[in-house]
């Protein structure tokens, strides 16, 4: 249970099938010690089953799981040396806060004075000192969340699993807890495997994100990379708003509707076409009268949404496709009205060619 | 608006009358048991404890009380243990034939006790088990099991599977999960199950009638045998004892449940 | 944490074994052995015809169904208003009404039967009141006849009905009644057009359960009935205890079990729709 010499978590071709349905398909991952790693995906993507197999609640049908350098594929949960925060907190209702946080230590027969010291330390870390005698029913959702967190870290496990731990909290508290969890994990140098379906949360907290889709990992990488360099339309869409503009290869160039042509970062000339990906915030409205060049399209404003710091335009292209453009609400910005004709443009470096 | 008021008053009167009628027989037996008269009469002319004295001074009555207690205690342990295991399996496992299993497990409540009793008698007579108390307890467990199951299944609904997962990840074995988490949470249900299975056996007559023989005559069997002869006041004293046991069991059950509700009640 | 295949069967096996070995098997074995005692299938068939054709047995079957039906109706008529009051009562009133139903419910059947024997006897409370008020000149026979059986069984079975109906009534959405009232329905109309139809499945389930239990009754009719009130369960007991006539007992058991299980299957269908439970 020490944090210094551990080696993180490694999954090798792990699979799980229920009946005729393969929920997890050949997943391989290496999570180094100290990393904040997020499994992100829609419900049914296999992220919860993957976490459940790492925890030992579900046995994989194939593949191996190594925790801290040891093969833990078939080890019972208690021998994996993990901490865990559950979606609904799973606070023991018959124990008070002290009893809950002390639980992992008491089960492992840690001497009483040591238990008291470590529980106090864990409670201090989650800012719940002086709550020892309360029961779960006397705590707010946020406080229960903190108890669950304290219980997960009190034994100094090298790896802590978190299953949508913030799902039940309101937005404000959520942000607060995101910062706190991240802070604690950094301070203790522990590996965190975090499951969520909230892309914003994943982007805020993670060192690396694995985006899961239908039992497989669609892409894996640091937040900025998966956001700006998605490998597929699925990843592009799942991580926020994405423009995916149809393009065809004609004479070596990628052509779109209304005479536009595109240039993208790392083009694959052998591809016959596909979708040009560009995030709305990378798209800008061009001033009147510039010379036509690559990555420019003409359209008509269909809808203008004033979001405060950003103005979002929905622009209809000649072929009916809709492109989103997020313009910063900088000083002196003139709002374009629906019906206005505009020209949009973006940098080549911000565009990618994805398979249709 | 005299109509609705009158109707409400009429309904209230009816309910009071019916409730009185429900409780009256039990109260009358208890009062009659304190009669000082030489034969059963209600209301009694004089009051005394003579029927209790006679009951407690009669070795046959005492022996049947002891038999009943012993058999009920064994039934209570056996049916609660078997019932708990089955209820836990039903709560945490998935069975494709769940409906069939449930129907089978509840069947002893539906099948007339006479049928169960005769079939068991048929079996027991061949193996010389008539009058063997542990065997009677096993037989009583057949009819106590469904009651235990119903109680424990609803008690187990309260235990979130994630609590068990949490206990396991924090170091518990299956037994540890049971001892540290499941048992403390379902304890009130287990207490109810034990009390009601005890009562079921303690009050059971038909199966005992066939299986008890002379060796293991239980209190209800002894009452039955006496009633076939005459309606004597000693039976009122014995009945009062059975009523007291029932009330005590209900009181304990109520107390345990209340205490638990207070501990576990959620804030909102 | 879900149980693995072996674990869940290992846990449920002892309970299933108990029921298979001490419930299903003995019943099957007793019926099988008793009937094969008669010899060939043809002989069994002849005996069956003889038994079912006999006056005493046919009488018992008719008696049983007649008594069970009467008791069910009585229990329903008394139980419906009582359950209604229970479903509407709050606080202390609720606790008191519940107490009046639960205490008898959990008291031994033989004690409850005995209590009514004390009340209905020739020197019992009822006769004393009737004589005292001068309504009758000599004691009325309330015991050891059909009246006694009906009163005793109604009392014993009433709690089953009340608890089943209560569950059904508690589930009725009060807003529906308010809506009906709001649309101008008179109280009787609200009851007849809304409340009664919504609790009808409870009535069906409660009546079925009471009827099923009444069919197999033994203690109360045996102690409170007269020579003309022999029910099937009593007949089975007598065939074995007195005449040691196992084949007849087995045939009677088949009839009783058949009716009971058929009605239980029906009950299963009804209560699938209505989650009304009973525990004892």
Automatic annotation (TrEMBL), chain A:
> Which EC class does it fall in?
translocase
**What molecular function terms (GO) are annotated for this protein?**
ABC-type polyamine transporter activity; ATP binding; ATP hydrolysis activity
**What residues does the ABC transporter domain cover?**
9-239
Q: Which Pfam families match?
A: ABC_tran (PF00005), TOBE_2 (PF08402)
GO CC, sorted alphabetically, is: ATP-binding cassette (ABC) transporter complex
Give the EC number: 7.6.2.11
A single GO BP term for this record reads: putrescine transport
Q: Which UniProt keywords apply?
A: ATP-binding, Cell membrane, Membrane, Nucleotide-binding, Translocase, Transport
Q: Which reaction does it catalyse?
A: ATP + H2O + polyamine-[polyamine-binding protein]Side 1 = ADP + phosphate + polyamineSide 2 + [polyamine-binding protein]Side 1
Instruction: Identify the NCBIfam families for this entry.
Output: potA (TIGR01187)
Family of the protein in this entry: Belongs to the ABC transporter superfamily. Spermidine/putrescine importer (TC 3.A.1.11.1) family.
Q: How does it assemble?
A: The complex is composed of two ATP-binding proteins (PotA), two transmembrane proteins (PotB and PotC) and a solute-binding protein (PotD).
Q: What is this protein's function per UniProt? A: Part of the ABC transporter complex PotABCD involved in spermidine/putrescine import. Responsible for energy coupling to the transport system.
The protein's name in its UniProt record: Spermidine/putrescine import ATP-binding protein PotA
Q: Please tell me the species this chain comes from.
A: Teichococcus oryzae
Q: What is the lineage of its organism?
A: Bacteria, Pseudomonadati, Pseudomonadota, Alphaproteobacteria, Acetobacterales
The gene from which this protein is expressed is potA
TrEMBL record, chain B:
Q: What cellular component GO annotations does this protein have?
A: plasma membrane
Q: How does it sit in the bilayer?
A: Multi-pass membrane protein
Membrane-traversing stretches: 12-34, 69-91, 103-123, 135-156, 177-199, 234-252
Alphabetic keyword roster: Cell inner membrane, Cell membrane, Membrane, Transmembrane, Transmembrane helix, Transport
Ligase among keywords: no
**Which residue numbers delimit the ABC transmembrane type-1 domain?**
65-253
Query: Could you tell me which PROSITE patterns the record lists for this protein?
Result: ABC_TM1
Q: Where in the cell is it found?
A: Cell inner membrane; Cell membrane
The lineage's top-level taxon is Bacteria
Family annotation (InterPro entries) = MetI-like, MetI-like_sf
Q: Which GO terms describe its biological process?
A: transmembrane transport
Under the heading SUPFAM superfamilies, the entry gives: MetI-like
Family as reported in the entry's similarity comment: Belongs to the binding-protein-dependent transport system permease family.
Return the protein name.
ABC transporter permease
Q: Taxonomically, what lineage is the organism? A: Bacteria, Pseudomonadati, Pseudomonadota, Alphaproteobacteria, Acetobacterales
TrEMBL record, chain C:
Annotated Gene Ontology cellular components are: plasma membrane
GO terms (BP aspect) = transmembrane transport
Predominant location category: membrane
Q: Which residues cross the membrane?
A: 9-32, 52-79, 91-108, 114-136, 148-169, 203-225, 246-267
Matching PROSITE patterns: ABC_TM1
Checking Pfam families in the record gives: BPD_transp_1 (PF00528)
Membrane topology classification: Multi-pass membrane protein
Keywords (alphabetical) are: Cell membrane, Membrane, Transmembrane, Transmembrane helix, Transport
**Which cell locations does it reside in?**
Cell membrane
InterPro entries under this entry? MetI-like, MetI-like_sf
Q: Where is the ABC transmembrane type-1 domain?
A: 61-267
The UniProt family comment states: Belongs to the binding-protein-dependent transport system permease family. CysTW subfamily.
In terms of PANTHER family, this protein maps to:
ABC TRANSPORTER PERMEASE PROTEIN (PTHR42929:SF5), INNER MEMBRANE ABC TRANSPORTER PERMEASE PROTEIN YDCU-RELATED-RELATED (PTHR42929)
**Could you tell me what this protein is called?**
ABC transporter permease
Q: Species name for this entry?
A: Teichococcus oryzae
